[in-house]
Structures are given as C-alpha cells and as structure tokens.
Amino acid sequence: MQVNNKHIVQTSNLAIGYQTKKQQTCVVDNINLSLNKGKFACILGKNGIGKSTLLRTLTKVQPKLSGEILINKYPLETISNHELAKKMSLVLTERIPDSNLNVYELIALGRQPYTNWIGKLNDNDLQQINLAINRVHIEDLLHKRHDELSDGQLQKVMIARALAQDTELIILDEPTAHLDIHNKIELFSLLNNLSKDLQKTILISTHEIHLALQLADELWLMNDNGIVSGSTEDLIDDGSVSKLFSSNLVKFDIKSKQFIINTD
Amino acid sequence: MKTQKTYTGKFILFLSLLCLVILVNLSLGSVDIPFKSIFQIIVANDSNQETWRYIILHYRLPKAITAILVGSGLSISGLLMQTLFRNPLAGPFVLGISSGASLGVAILVLGVSAFSGSLVGFAFSNIGFAIAASLGAFLVLSVVMIVAKNIKNTMSILIIGLMFGSFTAAVISILAYFSSAASLQQYVFWTFGSLGNLGWNEIIILCTITLISIGLLLTMIKPLNSLLLGENYAISLGVNLKRTRNLIMIITGLLTGVITAFSGPIAFIGLAVPHLTKLIIKTSNHKIILPAVAILGAIIMLISDIIAQLPTSEYTLPINAVTSLFGAPIVIWLLIRKRTPH
Questions:
Q1: B280 at the A interface (CB within 8 A)?
Q2: Scanning every residue of chain B, which has its alpha carbon at the shortest distance from the alpha carbon of A91?
Q3: What's the total number of domains in chain A?
C-alpha cells in the first residue's frame, strides 16, 4: 500500500469480524480509510453495523481478519502495547470499577507509559497532567472521587486522562452516549477544538448525526454496502449521507442537515 | 496546584500501633511478663528469669512473628484479588487455595487414618499437615491456572475458583462421612487455625516467601494501579494483561498457600483488612495502600491473637473463630457508619 506521511491512521483492504476455531464471521471487508493529522472524524452508522468492531480492531483489542492497518506508518500488529500507548489513547464506554481513585489520580494514570518502574511522576509528567486539566477546565473536580462525578464531568475527566497520555491519536467510543444536549454540544466542540488547537487526530463513533455534520472534518459512514469516507460537505453533496439508513422511515433533509421522519 | 495527599502521619500512627500491639501480645498469656523484661529479653537477650526468656523466645515471639506474617500476607493477597477481579467480595481464597489446602489435610487425616494406623504418627505432626496442605493448595491452584490460561474474561476465573471450592468441599464431606470421630476431630482442629505451631525454621520459610512476594509486588504497582480503570484501559496504557494476571495469581497462590499450610485456613482477615484500610486511608494508589494493608493486617492479626488468649489464662480460643466473631461486626458497623449522613 502507498504510505502517506500525513496519515495517522490508514487501512487497506481491511476485513474486520470474528474468528473462532471453526469459522470466520466477516462484518465488513474491503475497508480503505485514512485519517490525517489534526482531523476530527466521526464514524456514523446504525446499531449493529460494525462501528464497535471497527474501533476494537483499530485499537488492537480484537485481531483483524485480513488486510493492513497502519498507525503512524507502522503496521499495527508490529507495535507493542507499550509503544501503542504512546501513539493512541482511548475513551471507552465501559464503567470504571469502584475504587477510591480521585480525579487527579485518574488523570495521572495517563502518564503510565512514560513513568519509571514504580510510576513516579517527574516534572514533565506533572506539567502534562496540568496542561490536560486546564485544557478541559476541570480544575474544580480534582479532589472528587470518580464515582461522585456526573456523566458529563466523568467524560471530560476521561478526555483529560487521554490528553495526559500525550498521543497524536485519540479514539473515543460513543463519548456522548449518556449526556444531555448541552453536554453533548460542549463535548463535540471540545473535541473539535482539541483537533484544531493541539493538532490531535480524533476519531469517534457516535449516533449524534446532526452534531457530527456540523463539527466533524470527516465522516466515516457505515451502511450495509460497506464504508465510505470523505469530508462532511462532499458526503452530503454526493448523497452518501442520505443513504446512511436504508429505510423508508427516515429521510435526510439537506437544508437543515438533519434526518427527519419520512412523510411522503 | 495541589496534587496527591501524603499519608506520613497515618503511617507513623500505624507503625506505633503495631509496636504497641506486639508488646501487648508478647506480655499476655498464662504467665504475665512485664514490658521491661520483654525489652531486656529481645534486645539484650538477657533476663533474670530463665523461664520468661524461654517462654518469650520459644513460644511467644515465634507466635507474634507468625501473626504478623500471616496477617500481612493474607491481607495483601485479599487486596490483590479485589483489584484483579474488581470485586469487593474477593478474598485470598477465591482461587480455591484454602479449599485445596483443606482437601490435602482432609485426605491425610480422614483418608489415611481410615486405611492404615501406622502412618498416624507422622501424619498428625505439624509438618505432615503443612506438606499435605501445601500439596493440596498447589494442586488446586495449578488446575485453576491451567483452566484459566485460555480464558479471556477474568470474571470467569473467579467463578472457576468458586466451583473448585464447592467441588473440594463435597469431596471433604464424603471423606468426613466415612471417617472415625477421632480423625474427624483432628481435621476440625486444623480448620480452627493456629498461629502457635511454627518453630523458627518454619518462620524462616514463611518469611522468605513473604519477602519474595513483596519484592515481586513492587514491580506490579503500576499495572495494579492501571487495573483500577478496568482491563481495557489498562491494556491501552501498555499493560501486558496476561502476564500481570498470572503474576498476581502466582504471588497470591504462594502467599496464601504457605500461610494456610502452616496456620490453617484463617478466614476473614484477607477479605476485611483491605476494606478497613481503604476506610482509613482514602486512596486506591497501590504504592500507598499495599504497605498500609500489610501493616494493618499484622495489627489486626495480633489483636485477634490477644483476644484469643484473653478469656481464661488456661485455654486459647480458636483463632479462626476470633477473626470472624469480632471482625465481622466491626466491619459492618464501620460500613454503616460511613453511609450515615452527618
């Protein structure tokens, strides 16, 4: 495959799915995607289409079936967990187990790939942690325990933790799932700002189509025919967005950039 | 910006309390020995009372050191299991180690005595019990680890450990059903637990294993902390989950296996001490909580031993009963008090 220096994430002929001893279940194949530095991209698609499978494959949680994934020009499978931790940070949907962990300690855990054997934070680590905290504006939460936070606050804390990990690429799995509309908008614009101001490459899966259409640089649209990617304007213009749901129930209204109930 | 709290004050308090409890523990028993003489005997190895010297050096000091090692070891193991399984109900015995040890002793006492009387002399010696318990614990732990090897989901290991516990309990019931009253009593006495069975040689073994485990644990502090976020986050921070999981299981197996072999299946300490510690020291950072749990475990084991020998000077209560009898209400009270709004 042709290696492009700007590409933080690149896939070629990638097939994703599940492999058991007896059989292979392919969810999506022939995936050719790329994501450049400093871009904010949203993966859109209906439930069960394979968004999570794609994210799990790109983050090395689950093996690919075939094809290639390059992260910073290196094949994903050749990158050790420890090296990958310096290239890619995650915000997941899973609940954090009960513990006395407070917000500051939680964010500080983001420095683990860089700290020594016993986890001592040096001046640079402390500086990175403070930068992350200031960036996300959670100074007043630092001494709270993680289970005392609201969903919106927790999501911001998890983003600060990912920022402290100091990686070019940040991947978030449905980061706005439990948030109210105000927090959803705040989170989307935060992610958009991080990609513009800090040149972070941000990839999220989401169901917030109208926010994604307003704020994302790129969309990865998943439907039954596979994945199409491109800039948001291009995908609206060429009709790809309106094909996202192959159903007569909803239709895409180009003027308002929203899916509405089909009354025809 | 304020960062992490320091806990120096609480550690000094813990250590002073530990010293005090050691002294009280050494001074109590069927013969009262004043603190001053204890100092003379331990520090200067000198006393005007030869019997006191003998009691301290050959009976009470080994027992106190055993209590410290057992309390620390079980509490550390409990904390490791609670972090690994992200489950507050996990304890040092969830991997089936105590069931394995019990099975070993049960086969020795109930099984062997049923077939041949000649082995009885060896079998009922402390070292015979220790070997049987070690073999049993090691066997069950090995089986659990082999089964767990190909399992991705850590929770399943917890259930497998519990299943082995039920399985061995069933085997022990069958053995007990067919055995004589005398050998049944021997077995029951072992399950009471005892801190006083260890000579200096056994203590050296226990001490070595504890030190090796603690040394290994120091390298595990980072992965243990990252596990506080859950397994997937830990992996995303560069942790080798399988290696971490195996090492934690081996350390726990080693510690609880040897402790159970020498002092019987002592309940409750491993489950409760991590909770008590987290109520006093409000952090989950293993760099702080691990040593705190070790010290508090030692203190509580020593106090349990003091309670066990208090009621009459002639007899001592079974240590296993004391730990639960006095420990369980205290933990319940602490948890209820914590929930009550002030």
A1: no
A2: B233
A3: 1
Sign of torsion, CA A122 A124 A126 A129?
negative
Nearest-angstrom CA–CA distance, A3 and A7 = 8
pLDDT in tens, B155-193: 888 888 888 888 888 999 998 888 888 888 888 888 898
Q: Is the ipTM of this complex over 0.90?
A: yes
Q: Which domain CATH number covers A240? A: 3.40.50.300
Of A90, A119, A143, the CB nearest to B225: A119
On whether residue A161 sits in a domain, the answer given is yes
Q: Smallest Cβ distance to A85: which of B218, B237, B284? A: B237
Q: Which residues pair with A260 in a beta bridge?
A: A251
Q: Give the Cβ contact number of residue A32 at 10 Å.
A: 15
- β-pairing, A218-223 vs A24-31, is unpaired
- What digits encode the pLDDT tens for the residues B259-303? 998 898 898 899 899 999 998 998 899 999 999 999 999 999 999
B342 pLDDT exceeds 50? no
Range of the domain at A115: 38-49+81-261
Helix or strand run (H / E) with residue A173: strand A169-173
**Amino acid identity, residue B278?**
K
Inside any domain, residue A12: no
Residues of B in contact with A110 (CB under 8 A): 237
